[in-house]
Design brief:
With 260 residues, this protein is mainly alpha-helical. It is built from nine helices and four strands. The protein is globular and about 50 Å long. The mean pLDDT is 93.
Length: 260
């Protein structure tokens, strides 16, 4: 079972599951490197951090999600109707999301919560539809894998992870997008946030719950290392509890970690 999670094995499996998603994830990882390098020549800031930080993090998160979906597809023991269409929809939504984010960053403007012009308002709505498409197609692939769960605990874990991660991520994302920012109380600035993530240390931050919800997709399959289906179920429940706790904290204006 441990060999199933070796990085080389996962990458080979992902490429076998969907070469399109595999190459897409590789391109996204190059995007991460470029966006993290751009601040060396572009000093513009938004909310106290580089204009290129958000695209870099989305490139990284979506590359990981694309690899996870591709890996999930490799677990299908027999062809499943609709997965090719779901894959193409995932890639299309991903491309639209990142293209718009890069466009806004190149202008030194925010992509999220930006409804300053009719075009910006329309595109913010398009991004919302894109996000739902990304989680919806991930959930669909998870459902197809889960239908074959009797084969082994790994397929059950992958199916649950893709479906639950999509559900939790969509819930947190929808609530987040209904606000005018991800902050609730505290300093509305990322400069003094937690290292790398920049989550607020002075008030509530809805990004924490959103992150936990989305990346339950990667956490739950690790429970399959135990070979125990109850461990998989327990990890799924733990992800729900952690997301609920951090969501409640954020809604009450409480940071995950408070600045000293």
């Amino acid at each position: 079972m441990r060999e199933e999670f070796a990085i080389a094995h996962v990458l080979k499996a992902a490429k076998r599951g969907s070469a399109l998603l595999w190459w897409c994830s590789i391109a996204m990882l190059f995007g991460v490197l470029i966006c993290f390098a751009l601040p060396l020549v572009d000093a513009r800031m938004i909310a106290g951090v580089s204009v290129w930080e958000k695209p870099a993090k989305f490139f990284l998160s979506l590359a990981l999600q694309a690899l996870t979906v591709a890996w999930g597809l490799s677990l299908l023991q027999k062809p499943a109707r609709g997965v090719k269409t779901a894959t193409l929809m995932f890639i299309a939504a991903l491309a639209i999301e990142m293209t718009y984010m890069i466009f806004r960053a190149s202008r030194g403007e925010a992509s999220h919560f930006n409804q300053s012009t009719p075009f910006a308002a329309i595109m913010y709505g398009v991004m919302g539809l894109g996000a739902i498409t990304l989680t919806g197609t991930s959930a669909f692939v998870g459902w197809r894998v889960w239908q074959q769960r009797r084969a082994d605990v790994l397929r059950e874990a992958a199916g649950v992870a893709l479906m639950l991660g999509a559900l939790l991520g969509t819930f947190a994302g929808a609530y987040l997008s209904s606000h005018t920012s991800h902050w609730i109380g505290g300093d509305m600035n990322d400069a003094n946030g937690l290292a790398f993530f920049h989550w607020s240390t002075t008030g509530g931050d809805l990004r924490v719950a959103h992150f936990i919800g989305l990346h339950a997709t990667q956490a739950i399959p690790l429970a399959a290392l135990s070979g125990n289906r109850w461990m998989v179920a327990g990890t799924a429940v733990l992800c729900i509890i952690l997301m609920a706790a951090t969501f409640s904290m954020a809604a009450m204006g409480i940071p995950l970690l408070r600045a000293a």
